[in-house]
Amino acid sequence: MKFIIGIDLGGTSAKLALFTEDLEAIKMWQVATSSEDHGWKIVPNIVKALQAEILKQGLDLSDCLGIGMGSPGAIDRRKGTVTGAYNLGWETAYPVKEEFKHLLGDFPVYIENDANVAALGEQAKGAAADTENMVLVTLGTGVGGGIVCNGRLLTGQASAGEIGHMIAKVDGPPCTCGSKGCIETIASATGIHRLAEEKALSSQVESPLAKRFKLGEDISVKAIVDAAKNGDALGEKVMKEAMGALGITLSQLACVLNPEKIVIGGGVANAGQYLIDQLQEVVEANTYPPNRRHLKILLAQLGNDAGVIGAASLVLKERKRS
Amino acid sequence: MKFIIGIDLGGTSAKLALFTEDLEAIKMWQVATSSEDHGWKIVPNIVKALQAEILKQGLDLSDCLGIGMGSPGAIDRRKGTVTGAYNLGWETAYPVKEEFKHLLGDFPVYIENDANVAALGEQAKGAAADTENMVLVTLGTGVGGGIVCNGRLLTGQASAGEIGHMIAKVDGPPCTCGSKGCIETIASATGIHRLAEEKALSSQVESPLAKRFKLGEDISVKAIVDAAKNGDALGEKVMKEAMGALGITLSQLACVLNPEKIVIGGGVANAGQYLIDQLQEVVEANTYPPNRRHLKILLAQLGNDAGVIGAASLVLKERKRS
């Protein structure tokens, strides 16, 4: 029996896990990460923690097939470097793979973008476990995503699956990427909050929620969604606009990729079936019939574990490929 | 030295070609097709023509690696059937592969959608010959396309790459697919003609071209494009609207797929560099910077030969895969 190591890197901690070959976790834990001194302690700390756990399990590194790791930033898959992961201190091309090699010798290490490994996770063990063609869309502070086609991650030249930056509104709100009207500016938690605040303060809609905005209260996206569910006029208008725009984006994805499942994750997806129903309605009305007929839109199932599971699944996929 | 057979099926004729292994055509010719009697003579006629040509070249079927064929309609790749190819008389699942097997015995035959093989053609020998990540968009009566990722055709569950049915205008003009506002209703030859006629007859723009529409003249898309190039106010307005919408569609594709090249083909692309410049400008202003930075938008190079070359290239790709 062989084992697989999954790592999901984040700005304050890394989630680590030891899996069996069928991706059942036998141990999952966290290690603190710090961007201090350009994040040079991150990999050594992770390796130390891994070695201790492997020993504790009565195993040896040679019992493991490889390490899969999800990281923020831009990944150079060939060189094994990560660039622009500012919350890790890895601003310029940080040689992650080389660092692992230095510490572990010739041991297989695969690095992938964190949004992409989350998609692999949902495809391996989550809401899309029974299909080879799926898209994960995560609605958090931004909008992220990953695409699996024929069981393989779609990477393009380097950064395919940048779903958050698909244009939803030409000349729309400015996006952090430098472009305008990206779906991220509308359907992310940030986007939903901005829409609600704008409409409330400009008195476009009057409602209890609008009143709270006018009073200068600090209102969470959960409160906006809850208000919408309870029939608040502002909440409903905002969610209709945000999910209307996201529904069209999903319809574009369905046309281009013809997936079997589109999985919605991230904090905003805590709105649950209410969100899915809104998206379903827009997709139903606006998607090329052959590509919409068998399409399912579903809530993500793995929450924060998607990344570490997907990172481990990457090891299996890359081994199969080579 | 081995050879490859390429076939590009059309409603009035099939283009056939015999290629070397590096996809140089040693012979290219046409065979009439007819939808008569549910198109049952099409495959036997093609096989007869192929056998005669192979004999004439002093070859044997065993000198050939396989047949690749592009067909209109929906392809079931596993079963080898074609459905809904009305101009061939193949309305319901027609057993194309079985028919070839009946006539040729156990000989490799690969069937693919005609828009997809055209993309493979441009990727093998045309405008995108040096990249593994490309998209072909053809602007004809409709808008078609095909997507190659990591050197492989993107198929999704069955019909990925339905670029013509990506939504360009929510609640826009009705599309033949049953949906509304597909890019096909705006940027195809039909769409451009409709836009021009509408704007002329509703006197939205006055110009020599608008006058000709009002006189009830029969005006070609070429005439509209030429008028635009010569500064006609209506022509310019129409092309700006059509290419503006298509540019946003290309920007969506760049975000999702991160291709190195997007290739524009079909009759409307005869407008040449003028078209590319318009698209480039829109993509430049509306695309996620990392995915636009190295993206090239180019004219297709192979014209009507793209399909038959791509069909042959499919044989090489499928052999490599298995």
UniProtKB/TrEMBL annotation, chains A, B:
Molecular function terms in GO for this entry?
ATP binding; glucokinase activity
The UniProt entry's sequence similarity note says:
Belongs to the ROK (NagC/XylR) family.
**GO cellular component entries:** cytoplasm
InterPro entries from the xrefs? ATPase_NBD, ROK, ROK_cs, ROK_glcA
Question: What keywords is this UniProt entry annotated with?
Answer: ATP-binding, Kinase, Nucleotide-binding, Transferase
One of the Pfam families matching this protein, by short name? ROK
State what protein this is by name.
Glucokinase
Judging by the UniProt lineage, the source's domain of life is: Bacteria
Q: What are its E.C. numbers? A: 2.7.1.2
Top-level EC class as recorded in UniProt? transferase
What is the originating organism of this protein?
Answer: Aerococcus christensenii
Q: What Gene Ontology biological process does one annotation of this record name? A: glycolytic process
